[in-house]
Amino acid sequence: VGKTLQIFYAKMMLISVFEVLVLFAVSEAMTMKQLRNTGKMMRKSCQPKNNVEDEKIDPINEGVFIEEKEVKCYIACIMKMANTV
Length: 85
What we know:
The chain is mostly helical. The chain has helices at residues 2-27, 32-50, 54-57, 69-81. It has one domain (2-81).
């Protein structure tokens, strides 16, 4: 039950990050290109800090979360950059 709850919370936090980015895009009139570039910038910053491979974080886009410390730390880094935590 604990891992299921952790996965649920991680998914909810990523949804929150996405919502914040969308709201920011709307309020600041960001284009989709700017929104994608912001996501790429966050990834370029957080991925090396957490030593996580593309193969482990690419599935996040489809809602698949790999239960590893590096992936969880990467998600936490993204959330911090988006000011959601």
